[in-house]
Amino acid sequence: MIQMNIQETAILTNLTKETIRYYEKVGLLSPQRQTNGYRDYQSKDIKDLHFIRKMKLLNVPLSDIAVLIKLKNQETSFICKKETLRFIDTFSEQLNEQRHLLNTAASIVNQIRDIVETPEGGDEKQVIALLEKFEGEIL
């Protein structure tokens, strides 16, 4: 069984001690405590912290991450199946929207690269028109 203090956990997860404490404060993490009050981080805590980091990279709100952690750790009963499915459907839609936005942005960036890399340097108006797509809801 792995047992680490907060400094070792911060190094292993590439998070600050303050961030780890904040995740505990908002209920995303519940490390065991030693008799002296120091936190003892177990392998489950490390896995949860890696999970939280990846969800944050996907711009998932902490409130949704809390639901996902409860599901992952099976702290929720399947009696609330409808609520769980509704949450998963919403989460899936958000991920699909992010995927679409990233794909569209990558396409625009590649188009700009193609224009700029032409021997004559490309048409500035074309580049500007492509950049302006990031201003509104065209994406």
Could you outline the blueprint of secondary structure elements for this entry?
Elements: H1 6-13, H2 17-25, E1 32-33, E2 39-40, H3 43-57, H4 62-72, H5 81-116, H6 124-132
Antiparallel strand pairs: 1-2
Can you give a write-up of this model?
This protein is mainly α and 139 residues long. It folds into two domains: 1-76, Orthogonal Bundle (Multidrug-efflux Transporter Regulator, Chain: A, Domain 2), CATH 1.10.1660.10; 77-139. It is 63% helix and 3% strand. The protein has six helices and two strands; from the N terminus they run ααββαααα. Strands 1-2 form a two-stranded antiparallel ribbon. Helix 5 packs antiparallel against helix 6. The longest helix has 36 residues, at 81-116.
Features:
139 residues, mainly alpha, Multidrug-efflux Transporter Regulator, Chain: A, Domain 2, 2 domains, two-stranded antiparallel ribbon, 6 helices, 63% helix, elongated
